[in-house]
Amino acid sequence: MSETIKVPTMAEFMAEGKQPEVLFWVGCAGSFDDRAKKITKAFVKLLHKANVDFAVLGTEESCTGDPAKRAGNEFLFQMQAMGNIEVLNAYEIKKIVTACPHCFNTIKNEYPELGGNYEVMHHTQFLKSLLNEGRLKVEGGKFKGKRITFHDPCYLGRANGEYEAPRDLLQKLEVELVEMKRCKTRGLCCGAGGAQMFKEPEAGAKDINIERTEEAIETQPNIIAAGCPFCNTMLTDGVKGKEKEGEIQVMDVAEMIANAEDL
């Protein structure tokens, strides 16, 4: 990967007196987790391909406060949120896209009462809008005819009612979409939400991510598609736990679109 991808910051846009079409909120996972960085890169390649004028906050971006709030530390959440809102409002940001449903849900639903009002989109929603506007072409490529099952992220699906955007994108890749027995409104959590990602599971007979991975494996997929970096980690661990990593991949929807075209 010698190629360099230009990702401008808001500070650079500001210096040129420009406003981006959309601010890409990268999130902690997308910035620091090695696996999630690949999702970030894939999404950025798609933004470039669709000629989207976008910017990131770079070092000015801090955690949205989702894990703190879910873990019960409302004070820390408000401190993190207020800091981000000050930065976003100073740049007069109107529209935000993020590849993390936790960031998506928090900025969309919990920032308004603290003075942060923005149009917030999950990356699958944004990619679908680019598709509808004819700015992005999504075609079968290497995933055509492959068996794919999609795992609904809690904060995209049940919390915000978005089930169709990721599936529409997968259909455009001409895959064979097979649903798990628990999907959409009945989807099962991967086990990482509510800050559970950062602690060991409590004693019990089976971890949630193993339960969920077993449901995915039942559909006999070539790929388990995800739309959240946390879900991606939990399902990848589950596939490894079942010693299936040789035959089943876990991929973000954005990665699949980028890889279908070898971007």
In short:
This protein has eleven helices and eight strands. With 263 residues, the protein is α/β, with parallel strands linked by helices.
Mean pLDDT: 94
| Biggest beta sheet attributes | 4 strands, parallel
N- to C-terminal distance? 12 Å
Poorly predicted residue ranges: none
What does the oligomeric state look like here?
single chain
For the CA atoms, what is the radius of gyration? Answer: 18 Å
Order of strands, main sheet, comes to 2-1-3-4
Tally of separate helices: 11
| Count of extended strands | 8
Helix/strand-derived category reads alpha/beta
Order of helices and strands: HEHHEHHEHEHEHEHEHEH
Which overall shape is indicated by the principal axes computed on the Cα atoms? globular
Helix content: 40-55%
User: Approximately what portion of the residues adopt beta-strand conformation?
Assistant: 5-15%
Give an overview of the whole structure.
- The chain has helices spanning 10-15, 27-32, 34-49, 66-70, 74-90, 101-109, 123-132, 164-172, 208-218, 229-241, 253-260, and strands spanning 22-25, 54-55, 95-98, 119-122, 147-150, 176-177, 223-226, 249-252.
- The model has no long low-confidence stretch (mean pLDDT 94).
- Helix content is 42%, strand content 11%.
- The N and C termini lie close together (12 Å).
- It is built from eleven helices and eight strands.
- Strands 2-1-3-4 form a four-stranded parallel β-sheet.
- With 263 residues, it is α/β, with parallel strands linked by helices.
